[in-house]
Design goal:
The complex is a heterotrimer of chains A (293), B (256) and C (286). Chain A has 293 residues and is mainly alpha-helical. Chain A has helices spanning 2-44, 47-50, 64-95, 100-114, 117-139, 148-171, 176-184, 189-218, 221-226, 244-251, 258-291, and strands spanning 54-55, 60-61. Chain A is 78% helix and 1% strand. Chain A is globular and about 70 Å long. Chain C has 286 residues and is mainly alpha-helical. Chain C is 75% helix and 0% strand. Classes of the chains: A mainly alpha (293), B alpha/beta (256), C mainly alpha (286).
């Protein structure tokens, strides 16, 4: 009996240790990024964020073009995705709860979510970009095919399944009684959606937007293939650009001197911090919503 | 039972049980006898489940539980022993039948050995399985499908499987916590008949909220109310001439 | 007059409702189109590149025929295998801890940490593995790639394990305790087997996810034009070679990229399918 008690103690210690490792992992990641960014932080300080010149040769590293590139692609992708994500969430959550159509759409979303990022990238480059190129020719814009617009579309397609599932989760939290009360008073589905569902889950949907935004910010491979690789500050939706992640993806292995590497790592740190903030904000808001009832 | 010699094997002295700040059992003194069926009855919340779960220290699974007093089994204080040792000497059957879903009927019966890493030779385990299933009156119904999953049986059969599983460990006492609450009347009748038969093999303590059941199967009955042992005696006496007014009221259905 | 107004209002409401419904359905179904287009083009362009050489040859310089991605296929499998060895023990153990400790400060902190970990961009995880392993060892390596993939697997495995084990009813554990089974055996021999399908599903889903990841490998595994199984040297992987070849200006390489894409998509979809089957067929009912 004594030995089984000993084994139990060892077991309890092992699972405790595992969870502590996980918590420390996160802390260690943050500290590593911070320390590795020090050379760049010390050298450039705030001008890292405001400088628009990225020139490895002369040792000048300003991240502004890429911060703008990241924000532009992510915000555009978000705006494109919102109507689709909300529609799917309402479709699956309210209009067609079950049945073959619902299963079909649900499975399609799962499939889309399962496609690897690089596949979106190769498809974007060889299938979507030529289409965008023709479109750009038609409206008299330089027919690059690649650029912020193309990247935003691919990004939107990638985040729609994710944001739709969060929106669906949030819409599902609306109490049945509230909806039934409205329906029994003769409200149409549109009115119930507008006056009951959206007000109730408004903050949750907002949280979903925050989470999706965080997702979009960190997306790398698909964006890298179609972003156009430019170091200039983008001046239009059709400009080629770089995002923080596409820049890192392209240049990290080329980086020779320590300041160069450190600057790239600092960009990674920025990405790390921003996605975490959005992630925590989003999750916190959803938790508050689910505690509400 | 006139003039019969009673063999006491389980003795509870001044047992108090607290769940956080609430007292579930107050100063209980009670004694149990070999090869007899003892019913513990009372309304919901009276502490009967708490009492029976002290006998195999299962009360410790609920965090925040405090216990004072002594429980002697064969003159050893259960509360001072290694809980695992005492649990292997007692068998428990729960309200909802709970055979292990990933195991066959055969493996379920010898689960007490398997899960504890006790290795049995095939002849040995075959013998234990057949004996236990015979004692639980289940052998004939399952002997041809010993290697099927236990969860395919009916509710009553599953419960008898759980009884067999407990008996396989040769326990000193069988603790039954409302074993027929979740069963239909026919299955309940089978189990009640089984309980009466089993007392020749093992001592039994039965928690029940069914007054009729207590009357039908037990030799001794204890009546608990709000954590106190109100009355305890032979079933015959308690049901015909109860000493306490509360017992009388409970028996006549004034509360429950 | 009043009656006409009300009737008109009802009519408009009805129109609004129908219009909105059509809009919702249209936008929802529209999302299936990109899916169909993507799968179609992957299949069409990929199938043209599928031949024996693709599977069994190593890459050849552009211009030479008969190049293949065998080194990438094997590399991916090796990276996944070692990522599992690193992530699964810690992940499952952590999941067990969280399912057994519903409240408590450490559990709460850990849950938030796991959520946050799940949201970290994969390229940043690649940077971490670079800092922790590539820099000290002064070499790109398969092991650093596996570490970055393991970090990505961890949150999914932990969450799945926790959610699955939380569903195991208390009655099962009580049955085992009553038989005198000690705690560690209750978890390992009763709870975990009962939740096997859920835990396995989590593993399959997380493997499907890391199989397609490129960013964390860019500066860890780094890629290797030759066939290699050495853990301490650079190694090629399917998503990485797709990136390299698709970004190149050479048509024969691009064609190989499509072929490799088809293989990758088929593999990932297959894993997700198995995960669904396991989740339904092996599920233990209580």
């Amino acid at each position: 009996m004594k030995s089984s008690n000993g084994k139990t103690i060892i077991f309890r210690r092992i699972i405790l240790l595992s969870i502590i490792i996980v918590c420390f992992l996160f802390l260690a990641m943050f500290i590593s990024l911070l320390v590795a960014s020090f050379p760049s932080i010390i050298k450039f300080g705030i001008s890292f964020f405001t400088g628009s010149t990225w020139d490895p040769v002369s040792g000048q590293f300003g991240a502004l073009p890429f911060i703008i590139g990241t924000l532009l692609t992510s915000i555009t992708a978000l705006l494109i995705s919102i109507p689709f994500a909300l529609s799917i969430a309402l479709f699956l959550g309210e209009y067609f709860n079950s049945g073959p159509i619902s299963n079909f759409l649900s499975s399609s979303m799962e499939l889309l979510a399962g496609i690897p990022s690089i596949i979106y990238g190769i498809w974007g480059l060889f299938v979507l970009a030529p289409v965008i190129r023709s479109f750009q020719l038609a409206i008299g814009v330089p027919p690059l095919g690649v650029g912020i617009f193309t990247a935003s579309i691919i990004l939107a397609i990638m985040i729609i399944p994710y944001s739709a599932s969060i929106a669906r989760e949030v819409i599902g939290m609306v109490p049945e009684e509230l909806k039934e009360a409205a329906y029994s008073l003769g409200a149409t589905r549109f009115e119930v959606t507008k006056k009951v569902i959206f007000p109730y889950s408004g903050s949750g949907i907002f949280a979903g937007i925050l989470l999706s935004f965080g997702r979009a910010l960190g997306e790398t491979m698909a964006v890298t293939m179609v972003i156009g690789n430019s170091y200039d500050i983008p001046n239009s939706l059709f400009s080629p650009a770089h995002t923080i992640s596409s820049l890192i993806a392209n240049e990290f292995t080329e980086a020779t001197d320590s300041v160069y590497v450190s600057s790239l790592i600092e960009m990674g740190l920025i990405l790390f911090v921003i996605t975490i903030i959005f992630g925590i904000l989003g999750r916190f808001t959803i938790q508050k919503l689910s505690i509400k009832d | 039972m006139e003039g019969e010699v009673l063999n006491s094997f389980l003795k509870v002295e001044d047992l108090n049980v607290f769940y956080q700040e609430q007292q579930a059992l107050k100063s209980v003194f009670i004694e149990f006898y070999r090869n007899k069926v003892h019913a513990v009855m009372g309304p919901s919340g009276c502490g009967k489940s708490t009492l029976i779960r002290c006998f195999n220290r299962m009360h410790e699974l609920t965090p925040g539980t405090r216990v004072t007093g002594k429980i002697f089994m064969n003159n050893e204080d259960i509360l001072a022993m290694d809980p695992i040792v005492i649990r292997r000497k007692t068998g428990m059957v729960f309200q909802k039948p709970n055979p292990f879903p990933t195991m066959s009927i055969y493996d379920n019966v010898i689960a007490g050995y398997k899960l504890n890493g006790i290795h049995l030779k095939k002849t040995e385990s075959d013998r234990i399985v057949e004996e236990s299933l015979q004692k639980a009156a289940l052998w004939n119904e399952v002997k041809d499908k010993l290697f099927k999953r236990g969860t395919f049986l009916s509710g009553g059969q599953q419960q008898r499987l759980c009884i067999a599983r407990a008996l396989a460990m040769n326990p000193e006492v069988l603790l039954l916590d409302e074993p027929t609450s979740a069963l239909d009347p026919k299955a309940t009748k089978h189990i009640e008949e089984l309980i009466v038969e089993l007392k020749n093999t093992v001592s039994i303590i039965l928690v029940t909220h069914n007054i009729g059941q207590a009357a039908r199967v037990s030799d001794f009955t204890a009546f608990l109310y709000l954590g106190e042992l109100v009355e305890y005696g032979t079933t015959e006496k308690l049901f015909t001439v109860p000493s306490d007014r509360r017992t009388e009221e409970y028996l006549s259905g004034k509360f429950g | 007059m009043k009656k006409e107004l009300t009737e008109a209002k009802l009519f408009i409401n009805n129109i609004k409702d129908k219009f909105f419904t059509v809009l919702i359905v249209f936008l929802s179904i529209a999302m299936v189109i990109p899916l169909i287009l993507i799968l179609f083009y992957i299949f069409r362009n990929g199938i043209m590149a599928i031949n024996w050489e693709l599977f069994f040859n190593i890459p050849k310089p552009t211009g030479e025929t008969g190049g293949g991605v065998s080194n990438a296929i094997v590399g991916s499998l090796i990276l996944i295998f070692f990522a599992c060895i690193i992530a699964l023990p810690v992940g499952i153990a952590s999941g067990i801890y969280l399912s057994e400790n519903k409240s408590g400060k450490l559990a709460q902190i850990a849950r938030v940490t796991v959520d946050v970990l799940q949201g970290i961009p994969s390229i940043v995880i690649g940077i971490i593995a670079y800092i922790w392993i590539v820099v000290p060892s002064k070499s790109f390596s398969a092991i650093s790639g596996s570490v970055s993939l393991a970090i990505m697997m961890l949150p999914v495995v932990i969450k799945n394990t926790e959610e699955t084990l939380k569903l195991i009813p208390l009655s099962l554990k009580e049955a085992a305790y009553a038989l005198g089974v000690p705690y560690h055996r209750v978890i390992l021999k009763v709870v975990l087997p009962a939740g096997l399908s859920g835990v396995l599903t989590g593993i399959l889903v997380s493997v499907a996810r890391i199989a397609g990841e490129t960013a964390p490998l860019l500066f860890t595994a780094f890629g290797n034009p030759f066939f290699s199984t050495n853990l301490f040297k650079p190694i090629e992987a399917l998503p990485h070679i797709i990136f390299k070849y698709a970004s190149s200006p050479y048509e024969d390489w691009q064609s190989i990229a499509w072929g490799a894409s088809l293989i990758l998509v088929a593999f990932v979809l297959f894993l997700n399918l198995i995960a669904k089957v396991v989740s339904k067929k092996w599920k233990v009912k209580f």
